């Protein structure tokens, strides 16, 4: 059973899916889908095929877990690298958060982008496809950003960065992009545009100094990228790898920056 290591709350996948109707967001018949915790097997080259133009099917365990984290941590602002089905569940979670406690945000917390998902992707076709299938009632909670992504360096190590990022301060960051084959140029001949290369995003390292204590980073798979972040993040992060779920989490556990940040921590995470 998955547990948020900070809030100590356990996730019952089936109950959460039923109570929040996660499957209905994607028109999934649970009688056909079966066990919500099952992992969908991909082909050997399924995730590293530059010619792929088909969206991966919904994996309810991943989507339920993201929804659970955004709701139980009372997240207000999400930055997502890579658009997709996760964008839908994040929007639904923030819609529910707004309905539950939105009235107390303006007068108690300093959040310039409350209840907004900012999703960035390099591919216009993926953004357009995501928009086309988006539940209309949730579109007001999402801001899509398109940006080229290029090979560059961080601390002398080859990596990728988007050319332009939204100017927000998220309390949850989800790293599931960019597509390693969408990257422009190279660094001394090195590029991620090969099935034998690995995603190596460094965008979070760029704006790490601006993040607030309590921020949670979730990395979907991408073990090499997670280790790259772990070796280069400079502040006090609590890292954990959930082997069964194949996700990596980083939580910024510094002391509050001041009264305003302390109020947000109490509101979102309790004592």
Spans of at least 5 consecutive residues with low confidence: none
Give the overall shape: globular
Averaging pLDDT over every residue, what do you get? 92
Q: What portion of residues belong to β-strands? A: 15-25%
Number of helices: 9
Number of strands: 12
Binned, the helix content reads 25-40%
End-to-end Cα distance: 24 Å
**Spatial order of strands in the largest sheet:** 5-4-3-8-10-12-11
SSE order: EEHHHEHHEHEEEEEHEHEEH
Alpha-carbon Rg, integer: 18 Å
Largest sheet: 7 strands, mixed
- Name the assembly state: single chain
Secondary-structure-based class equals alpha/beta
Could you characterize the architecture of this molecule?
Helix 6 (124-132) links the parallel strand 4 (116-121) and strand 5 (142-146). Helices cover 30% and strands 20% of the residues. 34% of the residues are buried. The protein has 271 residues and is an alpha/beta fold. The protein has nine helices and twelve strands.
Features:
globular, three-stranded mixed sheet, 12 strands, 30% helix, 9 helices, alpha/beta, seven-stranded mixed sheet, 271 residues
Give a nutshell description of this structure:
With 271 residues, this protein is an alpha/beta fold.
Set down the secondary structure blueprint.
Elements: E1 2-3, E2 10-11, H1 13-20, H2 30-33, H3 60-72, E3 77-81, H4 85-101, H5 105-108, E4 116-121, H6 124-132, E5 142-146, E6 149-154, E7 157-162, E8 172-175, E9 183-184, H7 203-207, E10 216-220, H8 223-232, E11 237-242, E12 247-252, H9 259-269
Helix pairs in contact: 3-4
